[in-house]
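Long-time lurker. I teach an intro course on protein structure, and each term I like to show students one example going from raw sequence to a predicted 3D structure in token notation. This year I'd like something fresh instead of my usual example. Would anyone be willing to generate the tokens for the chain below so I can use it in lecture? Attribution to the forum is fine with me.
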Amino acid sequence: MGLQPVNSPDEFLRASELSHWLPYIKDMTPKTLCVEQFPVAESIEVLFGWPVFIKGSRQTSRHNPELSIAHGPDDYQRIVDSYQRDKILHWQKIAIREFIPLEPVSGGIPGKISPSQEYRTFWWHGECVGYGRYWPSDYSAPDLKQGLQLAQEAAERLKVPFMVIDIAKTRQGHWIIIECNDAQESGYASIPPLQLWRNILEQVKSNSQADH
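-- Reply from a regular --
Happy to contribute to a lecture. Here you go:
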């Protein structure tokens, strides 16, 4: 029919699976161990210290801190015991990550991870076509441009046609990458959807004219 996927199967994995995108941007994101089975708590303490952040290789379980943050061996064992019973986590590989405190913002939802200076960015063939606040709170960062530059460098390394890169500012004032994903599976966060798609269509039109 003359059609092709926006992202190939390999590009989908490179955008979506932590173990696939991590090697490209190790220096931009928290230290991470991606495994099939949970290591013993003693080895986690040696590798990371406490606390640690735990998630699936694709996503968290609805940002539930009880299933995401282990402050010590007891928390860790509780998450280990709960992981395989959780309908979102059980099918994913396990990602254990260095816990980096992020710059907090006001607001918050009971039962969810505390909101921080985190932003979602959409990239179409290496061009930013939309970005906005990740959390439903009213916040801004005067140095957001630095975060967007970090995301752009990551997009250039990963070379996925249509992807999302989530960035955040640490308490120490550094920008880091939280995670990546295939943009076709990602929520818009605070980004106006119509404007996002208009921006993509402009890029498609511009690239088409350049090809001719």
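Some talking points for your students: The domain at 101-212 is CATH 3.30.470.20 (D-amino Acid Aminotransferase; Chain A, domain 1). Strands lie at 32-35, 52-56, 69-70, 94-98, 118-124, 127-133, 162-169, 175-182.
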